[in-house]
Structure formats: C-alpha cells, structure tokens
What does this fold into?
Amino acid sequence: MKAFLNSTHIAYSDHGIGLPVIFLHAFPLNRAMWDGEIIALLVEQRYRLVSLDWRGFGESDSAGEITTMDVLAGDIVALMDHLGIEKAVLCGLSMGGYVAFACWRHYAQRIGGLILADTRPAADTPEAQANRENVARLAETQGSTAIADLQLPRLISDYTRQHVPLVETRIRQMMNAATPSGIAAASRGMARRVDSSDLLAGISCPTLVIIGQQDALIPPSESQTYAERIPGAQFAVIPNAGHLSNLEQPDIFLATIRGFLWSL
It folds into this structure.
C-alpha cells in the first residue's frame, strides 16, 4: 500500500488489530526486514503491525538531497494520522532507532513505547560524518551494489556469516533494492542528526534497549550505559548477532520483543 504523505508517496504495510506497533527499518534496507516479526506477532491477534519504507528505499518515492531524521519522524506521524492511530509503540533498529529518538523529541505524546535495537542516541563524530559523506558519494557514483559490498562485512556477525549464510544473501538483496539517491540522502541525514542523549532521562514510556552481542558498530557496553539512563528501561543482549540482530537471530529477537509487548 502507498499513502501520499508530506508530498511523497510512502509505501507501508498494515496488518491486524490491537495495540499499534510501528517497525522502523535499518539503513540501507527496507520494511521487508521486519516480515518475520510481523508474521509471527500477527498470529497472536493482539497487535496492529505497521511497517514503512523510508524515502528512497523499498517501494517509497525517491528522496531529495538530504533526508533528515526529523523528516522521517514527520512521515511516521503523518502515516499514523492517515491510519487513524493516536499512539503507537515504535520498534526501530539502527537508523530506525535514530528516527525513533527524533519522534520522541518532537512527538512524545504519540509514543506508547520504544524498542531501540542496535542504535545509539549520540550524534556522529566528525570522522563518522565524513564517512557518511563518503558513503553518499559512493552510492551516487557506483550504485547500491557498491554500498552493499562496503557495509555488509561489518553489519553481521562472523557466526551469522558462517552458520546462516542465507541471511547475508537476503540482506544484500534488500540493499541492492535501495535507490542510490535514497542511500545518499539518508546517509547525509544521519550525519546531521542531533545528539539525543539529552532526551534519555525524560523518556517516560516503557522502553526496551536491544543490542547484538557481536555488534561491530555499537559496543554492547555503550548500549547498556545509555539504557541505564532511561527510567525503568529493559536491556537485552542478543547472542551470536551483529548489528542486524533481528535478521541474524530472529527467534531470540522475537522472544525478546514479545515479552516486552506482552508487558504493556
């Protein structure tokens, strides 16, 4: 399905009835990364399960030169309005987590819970910002396949690569489906995101922080440290998983978020 939101056609999926849960995908993937969770949770008939493609990813329209996290947060709230959802749980992984923090900054009253997986509240360092620009230029000059070649080695664990090689194939397919302009715009938007560390102490909704045990981009100790600053937050480590923990260890990830959602 598509909706015309904020002057852009945004592709989304909407299944079930009950507590609304909106899944926010990682960079540079698309909403298909959440299909496993949505299929499994749909059986419980307790949740309204929504996912969307960021601008320039999946089936959504292409982006402009820069797609900020604030713009994507606005797209989420516009989609909620379109679907008649007043308040939802947001489940964001990596860049999806950055967008979730932006949502809390601007639209906290619309959020009933947060699942923050393999993400961080901190802004990029100058070095990381330079790397984002390099990624953007690589996408513009060599396309999405070059981005997959560059990023995949750091996104999944050695365990996944050795024991579940089909996961790497699936991730590569999602990356290859992203538009070069979407990759470039989102990479530049991530580089410009503000530090959300100041929000942590004021997060008043139920929150679950998840990290892959072998995440090469965000150390588990860093995730635990910021989780401890969120009042009452739960913290979980997914064993034998890297940065894309829900795809690498889907059963453990599902059990972790299912327990959290049941507590709401």
About this structure: Residues 126-142 form the longest helix (17 residues). Residues 17 and 241 are 31 Å apart (CA to CA). The chain has one domain: 2-262. The chain is about 45% helix and 20% strand.
